[in-house]
Specification:
It holds the Pfam family IF-2B. GO terms for molecular function: S-methyl-5-thioribose-1-phosphate isomerase activity. Pathway: Amino-acid biosynthesis; L-methionine biosynthesis via salvage pathway; L-methionine from S-methyl-5-thio-alpha-D-ribose 1-phosphate: step 1/6. It is an enzyme of class 5 (isomerase). The protein is of the alpha/beta class and about 350 residues long. The protein has two domains: about 130 residues, translation initiation factor eif-2b, domain 1 (Four Helix Bundle (Hemerythrin (Met), subunit A), Up-down Bundle); about 220 residues, Rossmann fold, CATH 3.40.50.10470. It has eleven helices and 18 strands. Helix 7 links the parallel strand 7 and strand 8. Helix 2 packs parallel to helix 4, helix 2 runs antiparallel to helix 5 and helix 4 packs antiparallel against helix 5. The longest helix is centred in the middle third of the chain and has 41 residues.
Length: about 350
């Protein structure tokens, strides 16, 4: 991903200083601000407060957070406490728990004196694998986009929801990786960007697409159905926070509505995600926990005031009862295909196991 023409990743590791730098995504799109994370508490706060967000980036940040924690306390109780604290930050995104389980499996058998170097090395491996997997997702998705564009014979109009781009990963993105691959390959592509209330992650998508020079248009969430029905959308592609073993997909709330509109208008609905988002231990979407976030995310609207300073405007009284579920579940039957680093498959247990036969329990 480019910022002002310079290739940039969302996370910078400083093992010699036992710290990482992250982009404070709560300040985007109005300001690009890097934050240094030096403690376990700061790492947990960054995930919980959505300074970092997006399932793959949450996983990588948690891995580095555990490495930072080991520098503070490498004992068995210290390791267990750090895993528990990081694991409690976000319940829905399975990448977080996948990364922590992978780190624990490596570190637990080691003597405390050996854990620090091993933790940083493994966190780095997780981050590099994320980059490679997302790049592969881009190439597999590009093949689908090429076919659609040949059929349409014009600019390919793709719609997305939430932010599943570079900002949601270490690099490339999941749902936006095929978009970047198409743009870089010279394939004419335009992106309809859904605002994604109430946190407006679509504004982050628009910001990063603009940085990379990809044509796009930001829309209100409720305009999506009209655009589909009027023939202005060729495909919808989203990321995921967890994919169950049967192909059900948990993603940002509002995703299910777009999948339904796609089904009604014969538009392909694609989900792009790496292996770390697949939860083969989760039988179906009914078993996926749905995070309920603070109601003030809905009651308050954040932006800039007339002095161009960050400000919050209250649209609802503090006592107004609100529901703020962060995710919904799209049934596998509404998913045209799942795009992973290993290829494209149907949204089904059989389809996923064809790509990941090692996960078969038979």
């Amino acid at each position: 991903m480019n910022i002002d023409g310079i290739p940039t990743r969302t996370l910078r590791a400083h093992p010699e200083q036992r710290a990482i730098d992250i982009i404070d995504q709560t300040r985007l799109p109005h300001a690009l601000h890097w934050v240094r994370v030096r403690t376990l508490a700061e790492a947990a706060h960054a995930i919980r407060a959505m300074q970092v967000r997006g399932a793959p980036l949450i996983g990588a940040t948690a891995a580095y957070g555990l490495a930072i924690a080991v520098a503070e306390d490498a004992s068995d109780p210290g390791l267990a406490q750090a895993i528990a604290e990081l694991g409690a930050t976000r319940p829905t995104a399975v990448n977080l728990h996948w990364a922590l389980a992978r780190m624990q499996a490596l570190l637990q058998p080691l003597a405390p004196a050996q854990r620090l170097a091993a933790a940083w090395q493994e966190a780095e491996a997780i981050a590099e694998e994320d980059v490679a997997q997302n790049a592969a997702i881009g190439q597999h998705g590009l093949a689908l986009f090429r076919q659609l564009q040949r059929e349409q014979g014009r600019v390919l109009n793709v719609m997305t929801h939430c932010n599943a781009g570079w900002l949601a990963t270490v690099d490339w993105g999941t749902a936006l990786s095929p978009v970047y691959a198409a743009h870089d390959a010279g394939l004419p592509v335009h992106v309809w960007v859904s605002e994604t209330r109430p946190r407006n992650q679509g504004l982050l998508t628009a910001w990063e697409l603009a940085q990379h020079g990809v044509p796009h248009t930001l829309i209100a969430d409720n305009a999506a159905g009209l655009l589909m029905r009027s023939g202005q959308v060729d495909a919808v592609i989203v990321g995921a926070d967890r994919i169950a073993a049967n192909g059900d997909v948990a993603n940002k709330v509002g995703t299910y509505l777009k999948a339904l509109a796609c089904a009604d208008n014969a538009i392909p609905f694609y989900v792009a995600a790496p292996r770390s988002t697949l939860d083969f231990a989760c039988p179906d979407g009914n078993a996926i926990p749905i995070e309920e976030r603070d109601g003030d995310e809905f009651r308050l609207v954040h932006g800039l005031d007339h002095h161009a300073q960050p400000a919050a405007v209250r649209q609802l009284a503090a006592e107004e009862a609100v529901a703020n579920p962060a995710f919904d579940v799209t049934p596998a039957a509404r998913v045209s295909a799942i795009i992973t680093e290993r290829g494209v498959c149907p949204a089904s247990r059989e389809g996923l196991l064809a790509l990941y036969p090692e996960e078969s329990r038979d």
